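Good day; I would like, with your permission, to put a structural problem before you. A protein sequence and the structure tokens that stand for its backbone fold form the material at issue. The record follows directly beneath this note:
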Amino acid sequence: MRHLLLGLLLHLWVEPGRCLEDANFTFDADVHHFAVATNSVYVATELKMYQLNRDLTLIHSLSQRGALESGDKEAALFHRVSDSDVRNATFHVNILVPFVENETLISCGVTLCGYCEVRDLANISKLIHKENFPVGPMVLSSASLGFLVNVKSTGTETYILTAIQQYADTSKKGSCSSDSKAVNLQNTRNEQSGGIFSLSGSSSTLMIKHEGDAEFVDGFQINSIIYLFANVHSGISGTQVRLIWLEGKTSKSDTLKSLRGATLHPFDGAEAPKRGKLLASSVIPGGPPVLWSGVFSTDEGLTNTELIVFDISPDLSRKTDADPDFSVEPDAVEPKKAKDLWPKVVLSRQSSMTSVLVVRQKAWMVFFIGTGEGQLIKLAVDKAYQTLCPRVIYKASDDRQVFPKMHLDEVDRKHVYVVLRSQMIRVPVSRCSTQETMQACWSAQDPYCGWCSLKRSCTFEDECPDSVWLSIPEGSYQQKMVSHRVERGSNGNITLHVQTHLSVGRPELLSNITCQFSTSAGELCITRDSDPRSKQCTCILPISTRLTGELDVTVRINLGKEQLQEELKLTNCSAIQGPQSSSLCRQCVTAGCGWNNDSCSWATTGAVNDRVCNMLEPAGNFATPEISFINPNVVSFYGRNNVTLNGRNLGKVNRVRIQADINCSPQESPVWNNTGTHLTFHIPSADKGLFKVCVVLPDGSCHGNATITYRSSPSCTSIMPSSTWVSGKRPITVVGTHLEFVEEVTDSHAHIIPLRTVGLANLTYETPPAENIHKTLIHLKVGNVSLPCPSSFLYHPDPVFSSFTYTRNGDHLRVTIQKDADKLEMSAAELNIWGFHEGTFHYCIMTSIDTSNGTDSVICEIQNSPTAEIQRLKIKYGDRTILLETEANQPYKYLYIFLPVLLVVIIAMAFIILLIYRSQQRKLTARMNARLENLELDIRNDIRQGFVDLQMESADLLENVGAIPFLDYKHFASRIFFPENEALMVSCLKDIGQKVEPDEFCQAFSKLIQDQVFLTSMVHALEEQKSFTIKDKCTVASLLTVALHSNLPYLTDVMEYLLKHLMQQNSNMQSKLLLRHTASTVEKLLTNWMSICLYGFLRESVGQHLFLMVSALTQQIAKGPVDCVTEKALYTLSEDWLLWQAPDFSSLKLQVRFAAGSDGEVSEPLEVNALSCDTVEQVKEKILSTFKAKFGFSYNAPVRDVCIEFEKDGRFVPLQEVDASSEVVGEVTMLNTLKHYKVVDGASVKLLSKKTHPPLSPQGSVKDDQDFSGKYFHLIDPDVDEDQRQNPERKKLKLKEVHLTKLLSTKVAVHSYVENLFRSVWGRQHCKAPHAIKYFFDFLDTQADNLKISDPDVLHIWKTNSLLLRFWINILKNPQFVFDMEKLPHLDGCLSVIAQAFMDSFSLSENQLGKYAPTNKLLYAKDIPKYKQEVKAYYKQIREQPQITHSEFRGFLLEESKKHDNEFNEETALRELFKFIQQYFTVIKQKLEKNGAPIELMEQLQHVKNQFGGLKTCVWN
């Protein structure tokens, strides 16, 4: 047996970008169980159960907390309750089994006692069955398991096999009664004998028993044999790993009676038996024989683990029920002995392996190994059990242990589901596409990857269906893609053999292999291999060629379209001579010769593999180097700089080699400061694990045997304290994990900060000085990587000590120092204080630092003070020392201060008098120029401010938008269906739980419209009437959508029929105008259909980006003034809505408190951003909006039911929209603003509800006035000339063109959100367009072919009109259709600009824009060409996407109908629809007759009319 010490090993180089695209999901708590079935993943945690898609997006989640009905402990039934109800129980899942054939999910565990649920496999929120029944352990257990087994008798019966952890201490089994034993078979269906979950069989109830401790690890069934693995504690002999075989036959009892056992023996290097504990296992697919791999712990922990392969093929010749630990018949007296099984091979010995999953990839076995350090390792093993270089395909930055069980995605077989505590990751088994060349693809040594000749890329084999696929050889390891050997025959001829080590997929496409051998002198020979399977070429060198020295030969190998080129240096093998050494051996083998009997010979004899060279001594007179130790030898996976290696005979060492596995490329690091006994080198980055280290001599030989351990990366959780003084040298402590690997600390200003102390969980350093107050970030330098700490670090001014006092306290002198309050939060330990008296300093011991009234009091004591007074203090903090004098020592202090001040005042007064005198002389001239200068200055300032805004604008929006208020489906759909008819929209909706029994009329009419002849004839008849308006057409289309919503496939057929008819009408006219306007019933029907089919895509992929874009627009608009009367805004995208007359304004932060009751109590302050030009109404709106964003719910009163008060001079003043102080211009009143009330930044505002605090002078909103815009104004003056006469200082000259930059700055602020929105629309979820878009585009393609339309522009316009005009533009311009929000007029203007840019991106015409073009076109002019290219690619991708079959799309439509069943009032829609039929009854009947409708249909229509008439009479009566 070959032992690969993979654990010392692991060069685990990581495939590039391994974590960037891995889908993941984080749960509410650690995962206890998970299972994979078909297209879903099922996960049970302590608090919830989850159903996820294959890509780990959430489908359903279910709380595991609830309440137990009162009653007996074991009879109390568990039921889930809402979060607001009292909960007294949690359902802890021990068994989680998907029953795919039955389409159910079985979960069993404990509440108080045993409890089970059966749920719908497609929707776990649907409960099928629940009952109190013990299935599995009666306590929470991680060493029990359950899985489905099939037992064949007359048919196939499926049972749950439960293997329950056993305890020698019976108190651990729990207090609940259970008939279950160690191994049980329990029913899965009620139809089985005894009912669901029953233990009993058709004849008797048998179970497998065990006495003592037993932990079950894994179990599965292959064909009819059931395999079960357990750790059994066998007293003196310790823990044994036991395998149980059962035959699934005839019945439960016969299956259990077939018990046979075996003991698995791991062994050490001397192959002596030893004990081991099984941690995880996986069967190896394929066989017979049945191969199985297990992770064993050899030390009862994770320190030493082994990955071992066993042959576990069952020995059915042994006597049944003869296991010494497990038995069916406990009274047997015969001695029992289990069979002994020994390892087939030990693949790996390393620390911390926790899980394993094995997959067959052709002839390769691919092992996926999880570790306790959060790594997932891929290890490929050939059929001779030789391993390739192990690769880390996922690495967590911390030490979260990989869950013992992993699952393969059985749908694509290209992903592995891995759990790390509360997180699940879907890790790709390979990332072939990262290898860009054929050589790189082969060198990756990945059984999954090969070079696709047609695509010229590295792919999975199924991604290369029509091309040669070149991969590594199947089932055998090779070091090079092309090798050669040189032989000399008995006749003296020299033959060169070239071998390509490739496996060819689709070999029938590879006709032959051609090899061309040439030198600088010309061609040597050309060979054509007629059998490409050998992939070998041979060249017999011409007689004229003599190998007297080195001969450079170029070999070009053509494999179909691929060409390989290899440069060879041929040498006379007999001439390679010298002292026996490893370097001479490598020279021999590299030249294609053979090493034989310690000398070089022709490759006809001798070894041609350089592994034989590793056993030879180095050449030269080098003393063999030895390594004593490496400091440090434990580092993070980022590596370490300046590491010291100590040893002997190191003088000739020039490199240090770090390598995990013999088959992996090593990393080498140069050395310096080599003294012969110690040297310095850098440890490069690698993956977690144990690595071998040796030192390299000039001849390439490597010596010494040391190890380096790579561990997790350091992380920083907090910094204490979080600030410092600008003079620096403050001691700082960083708290985190693995901080012993940190080499130094740096900040944002590139200061390199040395460390004072370093520990596992904290390190300390002293801050560098700074020039000013600022914020900085701290980085931990590890190797060549800087890791940021999450929180920022602040520099504040140095502390200011103003004065001190002292008092006698017994023998001690108590000193109190006054310090200005600051944000430094200094501690007593950071201060050192001495008191000075008569030439001597006395140390003052710190006692406390107290804060009161904005001043800090620093208190210390001079113990046993010889004097009762001190003259000065010496205070030291950080690196700074200050002296503080008493007041008595400062008699002239204030005089020194006031003399310079007085002198400055005298000089300033003299200067001012001189200026006044000179200004009087020029007063007349200055007055004439002042106005012109002011006007010019105002325009300059406006232009400069616009430029500054544009340059400084950033997308720093969306600090807190709260939860996205999506409308549910029925409210979304109803707003699309009836945008202008709210009454009809409400009447067509059903309330939750509302049941409407259809009357005879509705049943008959519903049946009638299910006839396509009637329905299409009715629509055509109605549309032919001139009195049937466009509004009527839209209403009929929407009523039909509601009435037929439960049968979307039929509605789709009707729509397609009507569209074909419309296309035939337009084909000879304006075909490009098709679907541009809602001018027909079917066009509105298409709008509704798109909305139904794309709702899921809208909500999952586009909705978040749309809401973020709208929120960003709203916040950007709110940053500047908004005129309350005209709704125009300074920040907008639309020139029509630009407030270019905006006055000067300033930003204010208001401290808003909410009145909590009628007795004057108020809440804590809430900071609200407002503008000085905001009206009272706008301030109230901003307060309530901030409240909702902060707390996630709305305030309990609307805007019109609240009032606000402003604290001024200690009392609160009401703020009103209009009062006696309001400015009046002519007959128009200006609305009061915060500036009018002189509200300053930081002002305190109180918000009160009018219900609990009625104002003294009740005032309704002035907006309720019908002539609001005529009586009031805000920012836009009603009469400029009159206003200037009354107050010439108030109005400044404003030019609209100056403020056009505001449009651009608004675009810059929201641009990223707009782009994300656009790309979410024309991006493809899961690399596929939504079903509806693909299906409808294919439908349009088909119709264009049928109508012989060859112009591609027409088809592009059809698709654009159907997708954009019928759906997306409607959504972009009306976000209130998707979200619970109000769309304000100025927001509508901005959305129109964005919608226009979106539409232009799909246009085929090139817009020629000039300086007089509309601003909404110019705004996105540079972006449109880029978007057009993306749209072109989007349409191309949809066209190339595999076609959706009719049955597949029908299934999608049925699922959509089922998903929203019972949400619409179809009966109301039918009655409203029949009103149109009644109005046009005659023409509809004539149309049916014209179309040859059957007599039965005409009679059915008349019958429905009569019923409708009777229904109206009944209602009237």
